[in-house]
Design goal:
It is a single chain. 0% of the residues lie in helices and 46% in strands. It is an all-beta fold and 145 residues long. Strands 5-6-7-9-8 form a 5-stranded mixed β-barrel. The protein has a 3-stranded antiparallel β-sheet with strand order 3-2-4, with no helix packed on it. The radius of gyration is 16 Å and the shape is globular. The two termini are 27 Å apart.
């Protein structure tokens, strides 16, 4: 069995999941995750919008140690370094929004600026609240295409 780390931010378990953002109908600003008020104009006229699945890496780094709280993923010997990227999601009209997220690639020799990526879901940790029925927890990430 699987569950999403943050089920409210994506359409997973759709076969081709999308992140859920919001768009302001007053100033057209797009945000992720979805917000009830616009951070640009402070307006309350926002509506949920599905974000594009593809984009371009515009900045990246690797995370070589477990993040601080409220991180709930693997630590100690179970921790595996991971790539983190700022991805500019685009659609047919051009850039839509920049989203920070995990990258499926963690080898600095294979990461590059301008790399095309696509949204995917990856294993994050295992919820063992019920030891007889562990649940795999997944989160979003961007994979090279």
């Amino acid at each position: 069995m699987q569950k999403a780390l943050a089920p409210e931010i994506s359409t997973w378990p759709d076969a081709e999941p999308q992140l859920i953002g919001s768009r302001c109908t007053d100033c057209t600003a797009t945000t992720f995750p979805a917000q009830p008020r616009c951070p640009r104009c402070s307006g309350a006229n926002t509506s949920e919008t599905l974000l594009p699945r593809r984009g371009t890496v515009i900045a990246w780094t690797t995370q070589g140690f477990p993040p601080g709280a409220p991180y709930k993923g693997p630590t100690g010997k179970n921790f595996v370094p991971f790539g983190v990227g700022l991805v500019e999601l685009t659609d047919d009209t051009g850039p839509v929004i920049r989203v920070e997220g995990r990258l499926t690639e963690n080898d600095p020799a294979k990461l590059r600026f301008g790399m095309d990526v696509e949204l995917t879901m990856i294993p994050f940790t295992t919820d063992e609240e019920d030891p007889d029925n562990p649940v795999d927890v997944v989160t979003f990430a961007f994979q090279p295409i």
